[in-house]
Amino acid sequence: MSRPAFTARKAGLIALCLLPGVAFVAVFTYYPMVRGSVIAFQRYNLFDLTSTPFVGLENFRAVLAEERFWTALRNTGLWVGLSLFFQFLLGFGLALLLRRHFRGRGLYQAWVFFPWAMSGFLIGLLWRWMFNGQFGVINDLLLRTGIIDTRIGFLSSPGWAMTSVIVANVWYGVTFFAIMIMAALQSVPRELYEAAAVDGASRLRQFWHVTLPHIRPTLALIVLLRVIWILNFPDLIYSMTGGGPAGSTDIVTTFLIQQVMGGDYGRAGAVGFLVLGLLLAFSLFYLNATRFERSR
Amino acid sequence: MILRRAAKTIVLGVWLLITVFPLYWIVITSLKPKSEIFSMPLRYWPAEVTFEHYAELFSFADFDLYLLNSLLVALVSAAVVTVIGVLGGYVLARFDFPGRGALMLAFLVTQMIPLFIALGPLYLLMSDLGLLNRLAGLMVVYIAMLVPFCTIIMRGFHERVPVALEEAAQVDGASRLQAMVRVILPVMLPGVAATFIFAFVQVWNELFLAITFIDSEDAKTVPVAMNSFITQYDIDWGSMAAATVVSVVPTLVLFAAIRRYIVEGLTAGAVKG
To answer: Of B247, B224, B240, whose CA–CA distance to B56 is shortest?
Structure first.
């Protein structure tokens, strides 16, 4: 597509059209981020704003010395890793099953799609009720089928709580993967399959040697976006367990929100920096790793 | 072959059941009388249907007010952000100008970094501007939150409109603005509607910013109100279930309307690249 060259006459139009959006983002997104990165080096407590001296790396030191932060960091690994693994696996399966057209496929997709209309907050509530230790339907079903004899306090025992929130997150995220992977599958040119079929390749071999190599770059990108998204997704945990019991379902982002709600903005800023660093480090590492694999 | 087909049907059926059951369960819970919600064994079909929890929402809790607040904030934010998106997307799609790439990058970066990373400073800013506990305050923050995504999406829609169409209109003597309103917008209307609905649903569902900036009773949105239903040890699950159903119905309807576009929007960037 040809774009008209930039001329002074058009500068006014361009500025006029972009100004509102840029202004909103600059004032309400970038300015707070910049201010936040300054506050991270200050003693800054909402309930005592009389003095806000610069304290160097004090906030970072305090956060890193806190046991709960390390627990949250470990939990973040579990939360992201396990959620992603099962979402990917089930989503891939679903995509393969939905790849070919069948009667009622559109309707089926519409139904399976519905969790996406709900917020993480509501999803968390839904599962909090189902995992209820006393009147929860999951306990009831497990009792009825004889899998357990006594109720499990899924959300009140530290051993079970993480599993429970991950189950809810997997339920929520499978559809996303299914949709993305279906789109990726559709991008594979039909001729490739035809050629492979002429060569006598079985279905499985076609999948392994035609489909997979073709969609791998897309899959890599989807996974990266997903990791970032799951990491930035405290909503479900917030409404399901609030990070409890005893911090057993805290992830770095719920930890961050607790710091903000506690009013210690200095520390919250430090946690924010650490989360950003984590995101950046992971993205670079991941991009590097997948590039390496592709060039091999 | 038949066996395979049967297996496929069963697997799909099971997954459908797993997906739909939580929704079914919350609806059923909202229709059960309290005595039945908290009695064992659980009933999978209510013996007695009641609307008392819905009635409670609107009598004891001011749920009608919260709904109205949510509706107002979502409508205004979505409308403003759609207009901003249409304008910004237009120049990003049609003109090459210095700083264009940097601007796109600046917008994309905000999509990777969660907004609540700056929740504290944002609170201070809102406080300085006197926007705490005000619906207008929520609106401006939501607009800022949605501008990057909506602008980038609208840029994509603009790129699909042939330049010739716009040029033809201009040859006929229409100004750029007239060409946009009379020729381009009608062609893009489905995309514009989808963007509006997407923004609406995002705002309707938003929690953390709202609970940070709002604690006065008359400015609460639905998620803020529902959040205050959560107490440390006890949740009135009847009312909570009813509130969940009431708050999710509008988004279900809207999402169903734009499902095609969401799928397209989600997949376009990743698959093309």
So the answer is: B240
With the C-alpha atoms ordered A152, A155, A160, A164, is the resulting torsion angle positive or negative?
A: positive
The residue count for chain B: 273
CATH architecture assigned to B57-272: Orthogonal Bundle (1.10)
Residue A5: inside a domain, yes or no? no
What is the chain B residue with the closest CA to A244? Answer: B232
Domain for residue A11, yes or no?
A: no
Rounded alpha-carbon distances, angstroms, from residue A280 to A277, B87, B269? 5, 32, 21
Q: Is residue A32 within 8 angstroms of chain B, CB to CB?
A: yes
Question: Tens of pLDDT along B131-177?
Answer: 999 999 999 999 999 999 999 989 988 888 888 888 888 788 778 77
With CB atoms and an 8 Å threshold, state whether B25 touches A129. yes
How many A-B residue pairs are in contact by the CB < 8 A criterion? 244
A133-160 pLDDT tens trace: 989 999 999 999 999 999 999 999 998 9
Question: At which residue do the structure tokens 């923004």 appear?
Answer: B199
3-state secondary structure B61-93: CCHHHHHHHHHHHHHHHHHHHHHHHHHHHHHHH
Q: Is the Cβ pair B267, A18 closer than 8 Å?
A: no
The letter for the amino acid at B77 is: S
